[in-house]
Amino acid sequence: MNPLRNCVNARASPGSDALYDLNTVTSVQGPLHRRPGAVLNRQGFPHQGRMWAKKLVHETKIRIGTWTIGSLTGKLMELIDNMIHRKLNILCIKETKWVGEKAKEIDSLGFKLRYSDRSRTRNGVCVTIDKSLKDNVIKINMIGDRIIVLKIVVDNKIVNIISAYAPQVGLNMSSK
Asked: Cross-referenced InterPro entries, in alphabetical order (predicted)?
């Protein structure tokens, strides 16, 4: 039996298999790291036990959605249920088919609906705002029956929301 047959020639290259990396300094007490937080737990895992700082100021998040509804008639509660379910603050709606340019308060839930339409058969835009933002509205500008511009204050910043409806079916090229 040859005793050298079971020996493994292990070699270490300086760049890959070194015991300590190039950023490690050795002293009489052992290896010293440049980042003292890296060896606090004595296992050398730098991320274990790290404390993350929490933000002192929380940003307000608003959720905005859009929906081509087909007709708003008879779908008002479905619209509100979808806003609550999807946690939307503002919902822009197209194809309302409600004639007029009015604002409507939905009594018990605190939502405000503002719509504009000239024809009962097509077009119409609407914006629905929940109770947390309805008092922050600066201006709502309705441009015809296809464009609605909402100017609102969120975290002391003015945000412009533009909702446009561009139907493609049955129109000539100049209208598109």
From this structure: Endo/exonu/phosph_ase_sf, ExoIII-like
